[in-house]
Amino acid sequence: MDQRAVLARFDEQMRRNARPDDPAARVERIGAVVRQVGARADDWNGVLWSGLDDATADAAIAAQVDYFTSLEREFEWKLYSHDTPADLSARLLAAGFVPDPAETLMVADVKAVKAVGAHAELPDGIRLERVTDAAGVDLAADVHEQAFGTSADRLRLRLASQLRGRPETFSLVVAMAGDVPVCAARMELHPGTDFASLWGGGTVPAWRGRGVYRALVAHRARIAAELGYRYLQVDASDQSRPILERLGFVPLSSTVPHVFRP
């Protein structure tokens, strides 16, 4: 993989020319900033891409703070380590943003993941259920809360909105042990790009280390290959990075969401 070329393609397709991740949201291009504005206050709002320099960064940051503050909305500046200027993180912190934990932007060739993960099987007693209704969304949200220890209220609303308005752009599955959900993972599809992105994959504590996460990555790779996508993209935590590397993912950058709360 030509990592520099793939990173440039990712920036161009997934950030600079991003499409809304929810049917009700909109993407706006304001000068050298691309942002998403949700239809509701609890939707995801944030800056997806920026092409700033020393002379323009502070004014652009102030403009976004003013805009989202006028809407009385929390928003995220999705900052990558290769973004410019080099001190953009320090400028965001000075403006009142708070950083979330860092993650690693990882990308893999879909066919390579499909080949490596061909024998990644689910543990005995686990089956996959595709989410097609509100009950399935609730199962996925329950897993999220157990796996990550955070509220899934926003996630539940977002998944329900996607299921109603644009079901063809994502694939969501829940791994079940009997009637108990133990892992949930989704794949966002981005028509017109080379990328499908993997999200979730959280496993409840009692089922970690048994290969469920790995099997769900392989499952989604097979779907992406069938749909003609070239790359899989993940914002990987420290816990998932080693598993993804064994499946053929390579790190291209790091990302630290910076959050501003009016």
Question: How would you sum up this structure, described in words?
Answer:
Helix 4 crosses helix 7 and helix 5 runs antiparallel to helix 6. The mean pLDDT is 93. A hairpin with an 8-residue loop joins strand 2 and strand 3. Strands 1, 2, 3, 4, 5, 6, 7, 8, 9, 10, 11 and 12 form a 12-stranded mixed sheet that branches. It contains 8 helices and 12 strands. 35% of the residues lie in helices and 30% in strands. The protein has 262 residues and is α+β, with helices and mostly antiparallel strands. The chain folds into 2 domains: 102 residues, no CATH class; 147 residues, Aminopeptidase, CATH 3.40.630.
Sequence-ordered SSE layout with sheet pairings:
Blueprint: H1 3-16, E1 26-30, E2 33-37, E3 46-50, H2 57-70, E4 75-80, H3 88-94, E5 98-99, E6 103-109, H4 110-116, E7 126-130, H5 134-148, H6 153-165, E8 170-177, E9 180-189, E10 195-203, H7 212-226, E11 231-236, H8 241-246, E12 250-260
Helix pairs in contact: 4-7, 5-6
Domain N-acetyltransferase: 126-262
GO molecular function, one term: acyltransferase activity, transferring groups other than amino-acyl groups
Protein name: GNAT family N-acetyltransferase
